Amino acid sequence: MTLIKNIIFDFGGVIYDIDFSCARNAFAEIGVRNFDELYSQANQNHLFEKLEKDLISPDEFRNEMRNITSKALSNVEIDAAWNALLVGFCKERLELLQSVRNNYKIFLFSNTNRIHYAHFLKQFQDLTNFRSFDGLFVKSFFSFDIKRRKPDMAAYSHIIEKMKLIPEETLFIDDSIQNIKTAGEIGIKCWHLTEEVTTLFSNNKLKQEIIDQLI
Q1: Which option is the CATH number for 20-83: 1.10.287.1700, 1.10.3720.10, 3.20.20.70, 1.10.150.240?
Q2: What is the predicted pLDDT for the residue at 43?
Q3: Can you give the pTM of this predicted structure?
């Protein structure tokens, strides 16, 4: 029988709503009409991965965006367009987390960057009584802070080792299948989220049918 004591939650797409089309539209409004193409190009050049691992600073990222787009965009314009994908928190999910943490040790793990973090941290503070995510979670892990990102196995190992967790007693919930696969390789129980995260729980505990399906 699977006994889950710890739950690691992904952020975007699980707890927090994101919409890349909003960023696409925001960039289009400032004259960058091929955001999808640029984002793909940036991935190929590891620009966004470097930003998420804090290997480049926000200013270096902004300068590279100006180079890529060949536009004299201001820092404010770039940040506003890039942050446009950050839709916001769902009140019901935040309420769920505050209840679920009475039955499990809960953690947060997000691939993100300093520009996005500053934006959604302010939203979090405005919605809750917490000044940081560590107020709600036992510990929050952000890729730019730990210099590791999903789906790198070293990222999951870092959390397991730092928090002294037993992988088989730990559930990782993420909406990205490639992240799920890697976490599972080190023994972490995984759930590929394709539904609303609140539906996984009943009376602030994981539903038995969910536990029975854990991979």
Answers
A1: 1.10.150.240
A2: 54
A3: 0.93
